Amino acid sequence: MRVVIAEDNVLLAGGLELLLATKGFEVAAVAGDAPAFLDAVAAHRPDIAIVDVRLPPSFRDEGVHAALRARREHGALPILVLSQYVERDYAGELLSDGRGGIGYLLKDRIGRVAEFVDAVRRVAAGGTAMDPEVVAQLLTRRAGDPLDALTVREREALALMAQGHDNATIAERMHISENAVHKHVGNIFAKLGLAPDDSGHRRVRAVLAYLDGTSRTPDPPSGTAR
């Protein structure tokens, strides 16, 4: 699997390159700024790009904008964005084009190698990976919030769903059967007034949109809740 990295911190970029190489990835290029990243994507046509949110020269959101441009120009290129801090607005911006192959993780997750590599592979395969800290902020209760109607276990399932996990992984994390997860998911969608959906990425988008308050109307369902 071919990867392009956009990271201006030389030590972090080198560490990422080494980690990915030891896990069987081919790192085609490492770019230190947005223009170099876009050139590398055009030259190497990677299977996934890993991009720092903040790149030179202003160190604001050049990475996000470069990632979105790369997706527009190169057929929904899978993108995993890394950030030092939780910046919840980026989650909605990255998911706004409605296509899969999107991830947003804190840089601390790189140290959890198995989880990080799983996220890279999931995003490259067209899935979604959202950092648990981002999801936790979105789950913060507000007065009169419909989330209050969820049970503790339903909230746990909702958080895992929003991170991009499928039912099998949620069942494993919660130590319950997939049938029990199916029931939790159905209850969650019913209580939050979301249309059930069998598409993994569309399901994640619907949940994140609801939690972020950006939309209460997900895409039309393609099947039943999983």
Q: What structural keywords apply?
A:
single chain, alpha/beta, Rossmann fold, Arc Repressor Mutant, subunit A, 6-stranded parallel β-sheet, 6 strands, about 50% helix, about 15% strand
Describe this structure in words.
Helix content is 48%, strand content 13%. With 226 residues, the chain is an alpha/beta fold. It folds into two domains: 130 residues, Rossmann fold, CATH 3.40.50.2300; 74 residues, Arc Repressor Mutant, subunit A (Orthogonal Bundle), CATH 1.10.10.10. A six-stranded parallel beta sheet has the order 2-1-3-4-5-6, sandwiched between helices. α3 links the parallel β3 and β4. The longest helix has 15 residues. It is elongated, with a radius of gyration of 18 Å.
Count of distinct strands: 6
Share in β-strands: 5-15%
CATH superfamily caption of the largest domain: Response regulator
Helix content: 40-55%
CA(first)-CA(last) distance: 29 Å
Largest sheet, if any?
A: 6 strands, parallel
What is the C-alpha radius of gyration, as a whole number of Å?
18 Å
What is the mean pLDDT? 84
Strand order of the largest sheet: 2-1-3-4-5-6
GO molecular function: DNA binding
GO biological process, one term: regulation of DNA-templated transcription
Domain Response regulatory: 2-122
Modified residues (4-aspartylphosphate): 52
What's the quick description here?
Helices cover 48% and strands 13% of the residues. The protein is an alpha/beta fold and 226 residues long.
Task: Give the topology.
Elements: E1 2-6, H1 10-22, E2 26-31, H2 34-44, E3 48-52, H3 62-73, E4 79-83, H4 89-95, E5 102-106, H5 113-124, E6 128-130, H6 132-138, H7 152-162, H8 167-174, H9 178-192, H10 200-212
Parallel strand pairs: 1-2, 1-3, 3-4, 4-5, 5-6
